[in-house]
Amino acid sequence: MQTISENKAFGGTQGVYSHTSTACNCDMTFGLFLPAEAADGPVPVLWYLSGLTCTHENAMTKAGAQAWAAEQGIALVFPDTSPRGEGVADDEAYDLGQGAGFYVNATQNPWAPHFRMWDYVAEELPALIAEHFGIDPERQSITGHSMGGHGALTLAMNLPGRFRSVSAFAPICNPTGADWGRKQLTAYLGEDEAAWARHDASLMMAKTGFDGPILIDTGAADQFIDLLRPETLASAIATRRQQAVMRLQPGYDHSYFFVSTFMEDHVTFHADALWA
Amino acid sequence: MQTISENKAFGGTQGVYSHTSTACNCDMTFGLFLPAEAADGPVPVLWYLSGLTCTHENAMTKAGAQAWAAEQGIALVFPDTSPRGEGVADDEAYDLGQGAGFYVNATQNPWAPHFRMWDYVAEELPALIAEHFGIDPERQSITGHSMGGHGALTLAMNLPGRFRSVSAFAPICNPTGADWGRKQLTAYLGEDEAAWARHDASLMMAKTGFDGPILIDTGAADQFIDLLRPETLASAIATRRQQAVMRLQPGYDHSYFFVSTFMEDHVTFHADALWA
Questions:
Q1: Which of B125, B146, B196, B276 is least enclosed, having the fewest CB within 10 Å?
Q2: Helix B256-274 crosses helix B65-72 at what angle (to 10 degrees)?
Q3: B105-145, pLDDT tens digit by residue?
Q4: Which of A32, A261, A264, A268 to mutate to test the interface with B (most CBs of B within 10 A)?
Q5: For a pLDDT cut of 70, what percent of chain A falls above it?
Q6: Cα–Cα distance for residue pair B271/B251, rounded to 1 Å
Q7: At what angle do helices B256-274 and A65-72 cross, to 10 degrees?
Q8: DSSP string, B153-190
Q9: What's the average model confidence in pLDDT over A105-111?
Q10: Are strands B12-21 and B245-249 parallel, antiparallel or unpaired?
Q11: How much is the pTM?
Q12: Cα A269 vs. chain centroid, distance in angstroms?
């Protein structure tokens, strides 16, 4: 593992690190914020999964999460959104290939050799940060924005016991039913829709739900809301009687101005679960 | 004036606007955050001047200032750092020309026709925002980062009565005595150093000081600290017995991670003066 940069921030350290990923078969870069408390022993950790076109850097510099994580004494992990590099397949569209991993293990070519973001975020990166940093693997929570909200919700429901709480900002809620999803799931997983189901938060909610609290914020003026389909997940949550808070925020759009506005609420929500 | 974008943020609006500038003789773009309170009447305003290479956008997306401005009910203005465009002179170096206006009125060619950032920030933009937005011109304060900290301090001391408080993050404190300054003041103002003096915060502190409170933060691990020369301004402040708080922050560097860490302190400091 290689240190790209370390900047003191809010009494702790905002680091950027790269490593050779076995899951993705290429070098991967991630951001990690450690609060001051990490010097004294393992701290809880909140994962932040980013949306389409983002790298590890967007949320790290624009979401304003470190202020609240420092206040709560919890670490933040900012993974990249896909494998990258010259030998890695890509597509001209912004929503397929590099920057658009969708948090699945691709089974179809040309994606299969590298696009294994599920294994990367669910297995390889958690093990790596637990080995190298003062993180408590028993206290993890997860959040994300847009495609990353999809990732957070599907990881949380597919890995029972792993995360104490899950939240999302403007998540893709029903990718099997919208253009942000059908296109990518076909490309990465093939045409058999049975393989898609575990990567759809609304279907997973109907099937298993989540054993813990959920918080979801979506801007009522989100320009992509028809692609997100929050109504499908809201219905599934209500049908299951799942413990959850879903909020539609009047006037807010899909941008990081929306994310940063409600970041304090989300970090506080997770801290309540992580420190319980 | 043209609206480039408006995003709801922290209950208010983060806007970006462009207009044809008389001072700079080209189109200029700026960011403006209005808190929710602006709907009910004029609100106080805090100016944020950015550093070398920045546009209006960097601080607007990375400094985390809106959260605290919303809490305090004050507006934020984010001007650009220089004139821009195809007809505007530039230099290959990052620290001269476009992105490096240094908040002066250039008298030397090729800079004189456009590089009039002093007039732009001191006169034209304040009049424009007072005309178009719910800003109270009687309640203004100013801050900035690096070159923008230099701008904030020199504007505040040259325009007595304009600003109720001034602060700076890692400001260039003594440009007549360091490479971040001598090079640009020579290029923009010519070789007669008498014309430079009002653009040097340390010299202005010795000459006039500031009729109000000052807050200055600098990272003790700032990689550019030899160019900033905080010791010169600290000495001038102490010699004058100027009301001021100067802090050296151990471990912090020159980045926006440093700026965002102490943003709450600065906005609160200005709010105390603006609401007094």
A1: B276
A2: 10
A3: 999 999 999 999 999 999 999 999 999 999 999 999 999 99
A4: A261
A5: 100
A6: 27
A7: 90
A8: HHHHHHSTTT-S-EEEES----GGGSHHHHHHHHHHH-
A9: 98
A10: unpaired
A11: 0.90
A12: 16
- Residue A80's pLDDT is 98
> Residue B93 CA to chain centroid, in angstroms?
21
- Please name the amino acid found at residue B144: G
Q: How far, CA to CA in Å, does A141 sit from each of A154, A166, B29, B32?
A: 13, 6, 40, 35
Phi, psi (5° rounding) for residue A54? -80, 155
- Which ipTM score applies to this complex? 0.83
Query: Cβ distance A206 to A155 under 8 Å?
Result: no
Quote the pLDDT of residue A235.
93
Other C-beta atoms lying within 10 Å of the C-beta of residue A246: 17
Tell if the CB–CB gap between A61 and B256 is shorter than 8 Å.
yes
Compute the distance between CA of residue A228 and CA of residue A254 in angstroms, rounded to an integer.
10
Give the pLDDT score at B183.
97
Q: Which residues of A113-259 form beta strands (DSSP E)?
A: 135-144, 166-169, 214-219, 245-249
Shortest CB distance from A257 goes to which of B7, B221, B264?
B7
Q: Which residues of B touch A76 (CB under 8 A)?
A: none
Closest residue in A to B250 (Cα) is A8
Mean pLDDT to the nearest integer, A43-57: 98
Structure tokens at B199: 């653009």
Q: Which of B128, B148, B126, B150 is nearest to B138 (CA)?
A: B126
Enumerate the H helices of B65-124 as residue ranges: 65-72, 117-119
Phi-psi group of B204: left, alpha or beta (phi > 0 → left; psi -120 to 50 → alpha; rest → beta): alpha
How high is the mean pLDDT of chain A?
A: 97
